[in-house]
Amino acid sequence: MQNKIIKKLYNSKIELIKKYNKSYFNKNKSIVSDQEYDDIKNEILVLEAKYDFLESKYSPSKSVGFKPSKNFKKANHRVPMLSLSNAFSEEDLLNFEKKILNFLSQDKNTSIYYSAEPKIDGISASLTYKQGKFVKGLSRGDGRAGEDITLNLFTINDIPKIILSKDFPDEIDIRGEVFIQNSDFENLKEKFANPRNAASGSLRQKNPEDTKKIPLNFIAYTFGFEKGLNQKKQSDFLKKLNEWGFKTNPLNKTISGIKNLINNYNEIEKQRSSLDFDIDGIVYKVNDFALQQRLGNVANAPRWAIAHKFSSNKATSSILDIEIQIGRTGALTPVAKIKPINIGGVVVSNATLHNEDEINRKDIRIGDTVTVERAGDVIPHILSVDLKKRPKKSLKFNFPKICPSCGSKTIKELNKITKKIDAVRRCSSEGYYCDKISIEKLKHFVSKEAFNIDGFGKKIVENFWKLKIIKYPQDIFNLDFSKIENLDGWGELSVQNLKYSINQKKTISLERFIYSLGIRHIGLENAKLLSKHFVSFSKFKNLSKQTDYEDMLNIDGIGDTQVSSIKSFFSNEANIKVLNELEKVLLIKDAILHSDDGLLNNKTFLVTGKLNGISRAEVKSLIEENSGKTISSVSKKLNFLIIGEKPTKKKLDYAKQLKIKVIDQAEFLKMLNKTS
Ligand code: IVH
Fold first, then answer.
1. How far does residue 390's CA lie from ligand 1's centre (Å)?
2. Rounded to the nearest whole angstrom, what is the distance from the C-alpha of residue 389 to the centroid of ligand 1?
3. Phi-psi map region of 354: left, alpha, beta (phi>0 left; psi -120 to 50 alpha)
4. CATH for the stretch 75-309
5. Which residues participate in catalysis according to the annotation?
6. Cβ 221 under 6 angstroms from ligand 1
7. What does the CA dihedral 103, 105, 107, 109 come to, rounded to 10 degrees?
8. pLDDT interval class at 67 (50, 70, 90)
9. Domain 312-429 has CATH 2.40.50.140
10. Cα(618)–Cα(642) distance, integer angstroms
């Protein structure tokens, strides 16, 4: 009898991993975090080790196609492999160019040239060449570190192993896409769901001989680390790649003007079905490397590039129900449960309805027949309602005025900046009063960018919450492991692993710690700013004793919205209790104030007036790159006021009064040993 139960449990875990693998390999999209994936994998392996009657061809111990997090050695990319932001419309592209021109402080009529490159839907790889020899190849991994798949890449004919050209850089990481041609895929249809899946499976074989059996191709399109690269433009670099023996996409073009980008996009979309490789959009990159350098990156993607995705897939379905999900910040998100429908190979049964306003605007009701769109990796959404098919007795959807989880009033706030009422309705409770908010806070707390506790994923948070094992963040560090060991699916080994990963994360940087608290409006960037400002946990915690929060407004990037959110966080007793309890179990490291060897070290700046050929954003990055700081108002803390055209008189007068040094653009650039 017991064996039957164990087998059932085992099978349910196998079903889960099958689902995760399918999504990962068919769509290269993880529907769970790495931790959750590894969790399930571990649980299966532990069960198998314990009960020898358990076996499945889908088990991670058997199948070749499983995510091989530990199969290959990890290695760091010397220059991170970034991802790209997406554009879906002309408007998105206009916005993209506008931001570029603003950042570069260029007139809106300035022509920017782009390298327009069809985006092959394969697996990216980074190939290191030293003195013309291919010495190492890494997969993208998480962008910072990848898997060492050198031997497998060696089997690909398109990858030159030795390059003798005189002008090939001394050292360079050539990056591009590994893919399989559709014609070759024909013979592999039985084994893999699509070409991308086949390429990914092949590239990750443990035995390079197996990789060899599946014909892989490589096209090159960018570089990472380099020493001795002489090209100044992407288009020249692409040409050189060909000369050096790499394949590049024959449909690459250099284009300026959004209208022309759109024409090219339409042209290529027409050819899409007749190409022998799958493409899912066009990548646009600012062609000039010097401009790319100036533009730099935001978070994980460059400002100088974007992926213009091909049109999405649409389908008709009907709304079975409208569910309200509650997020970490209390936002009530309506989700339409729709009759499951296959859209472009993916079965869709949920579509986001965004917020209350969206439901009202489109008058979306339960029972409606709707057009659902699935675009790229974005959650499917409802495009339109077919009013002709609306059932006679249908009722307008009433958005809940009280929180479905905790019964608190739901409110719509006034956005202080836009002076408009928010489209989002929120649960008005604070701290850990609302169960749904608390669960989401805990998920955020353990998430990748916060505590990143291995093996402690969303599912475990939900499970432990249900079993009343955790309620507050500190509970994670005070777990009763003997209780967990007796739970279904847990055993000695998995509990040991969990204990180990939790213990490992007891030391944390102040920046991550602040982020992990999930304070509204305090994302990664703001957490970093706050950590630099407060330096130590105790100073940060002191906010609970303060009434005056004005000082924080001096942090460039922190505004009224953030300050009032921090204020309300610190005025909630439950939050303070969490801080006190966490302090007992954690070691929160002081912020390391970044490199103090830059030219502007210990100097603070403020810009007033319009500068010439350089935007505020660029000045700010320049200052920070050189260890300086920007602040947002004239005060005694300010060292330099940089003035451009038409400076604010009040700022200038006040700076003079405080005897602050006033400099112009040229003097500022001189401080950086730059001339213009
Ligand atoms: S450039 C920062 N160029 O798209 C620049 N990427 O979301 C990022 N891709 O992981 C890479 N074709 O797998 C670049 N011509 C192209 C590309 C391309 C396909 C993929 C690549 C990358 C993803 C970015």
1. 43
2. 43
3. left
4. 3.30.470.30
5. 119
6. yes
7. -30
8. very low
9. yes
10. 14
For the Cβ of 241 lying below 6 angstroms from any atom of ligand 1, the answer is no
Cα of 561 to ligand 1 centre, how many Å? 35
| Lowest-confidence pick of 421-425, 466-470, 672-676 | 672-676
**Structural contact between residues 672 and 626, judged by C-beta atoms closer than 8 angstroms:** yes
Contact predicate 74/136, CB 8 Å: no
Q: Which helix (H) or strand (E) covers residue 629, if one does?
A: strand 629-630
Q: Judge: domain 435-589, CATH 2.40.37.10.
A: no
What is the distance between the alpha carbons of residues 576 and 563, in angstroms, rounded to a whole number?
17
Is 279's C-beta closer than 6 angstroms to any atom of ligand 1? no
Q: Which residue of 219, 223, 237, 283 sits with most ligand 1 atoms within 8 Å of its CB, as the best mutation to test the pocket?
A: 283
What's the pLDDT score for residue 625?
83
- Residue 286, beta-bridge partner list: 114
Is there an atom of ligand 1 within 6 Å of 277 CB? no
Report how far residue 662's alpha carbon sits from residue 667's, in angstroms, rounded to the nearest whole number.
10
- Structure confidence by residue, pLDDT tens digits, 336-356: 999 888 776 677 899 999 999
| Residue boundaries of the structural domains of the chain | 2-50, 75-309, 312-429, 435-589, 604-671
Q: CA–CA distance from 581 to each of 460, 474, 485, 502, 546 (Å)?
A: 22, 6, 25, 16, 20
Query: Which amino acid residue places its CA nearest to atom 19 of ligand 1?
Result: 119
Q: State if residue 119 touches ligand 1 by the CB under 6 angstroms criterion.
A: yes
Structure tokens at 293: 């350098």
Query: Rounded to two decimals, what is the model's pTM?
Result: 0.55
SS3 285: strand
Q: Which residues have C-beta within 8 Å of that of residue 340, sequence separation ≥ 6?
A: 317, 347, 348, 349
- Of all helices (H) and strands (E), which one includes residue 556? none
Residue with tokens 């608190």: 408
> CA–CA separation, 209 vs 214, rounded Å?
10
Rounded CA-CA distance 286/101 in Å is 11
Closest CA to ligand 1's atom 2 = 82
Instruction: Answer yes or no: is the C-beta of 234 below 6 A from any ligand 1 atom.
Output: no
Q: Report helix, strand and coil shares of the chain as percent, to nearest 5.
A: 40, 25, 40
Neighbouring C-alpha atoms within 13 Å toward the C-beta of 475: 14
- Return the closest-CA partner of residue 277 out of 160, 376, 178, 176: 178
CA of 220 to the centre of ligand 1 (A): 10
State yes or no: pLDDT of 138 exceeds 90.
yes
Q: Could you read off the pLDDT of 492-521 as tens digits, one per residue?
A: 999 999 999 999 999 999 999 999 999 999
Does domain 604-671 fall under CATH 3.30.365.10? My reply is: no
Distance CA 363, CA 368 (A): 10
